[in-house]
Amino acid sequence: MASSKGKKSRVLASRKAGGGSVFTEAELGAIEQDNPEGVSVQQVVEAFVEKGERMSEATFRKYVQLGLLPRSRRVARQGKQRGSKGLYPPTTVRQLAYIRRLMSQGFTMEEIQRDFLFVRGDIEALGRQLQRVYGALEEAMGSRPAREGSSMRTAMGEAREVGDDLVRRLEAIERHLTMRARMARAAV
After folding, report:
1. In total, how many domains does the chain have?
2. Is the pTM of the predicted complex or chain greater than 0.70?
3. Range of the domain at 21
4. What does the alpha-carbon distance between residue 84 and residue 37 come to, in Å, rounded to a whole number?
């Protein structure tokens, strides 16, 4: 998945150790940590191919068009007239693996759209946006005098706790609704 040999060997070593065709939580975490700015469609496809999974750019783009995966954001390339490239959120590989797992369990794309992913991407986007806001505010606070900065840091810590709690609660609600949809389908 990644450009360096170390990252690639980490994924491949896990597969050889019995990881099968499914990503482990550690692999997904490593991909997300190694690519905090996002991943390209080529990186996502490469990650699945390295795991022995069939995946093409066309299939990936179809999932994006259907709303199963988030849209990319354009990022300028360095250098003269190099244009821009699309980067997807670092959690895209995780979300695509989840979609593929649901499909292997017999769920259709329509069922996945309706019952499983209707707000997941929005919740993940909210979490990423909150992290950007926290970072920008903390950077701005760094230039404040010590006594003024102390009260603002306390307020920032409290705001971060509230924001993180909000995201956790929304994720729990979404998981509960997803579980209900799975149980309803299993009962049929």
Report:
1. 2
2. no
3. 1-106
4. 14
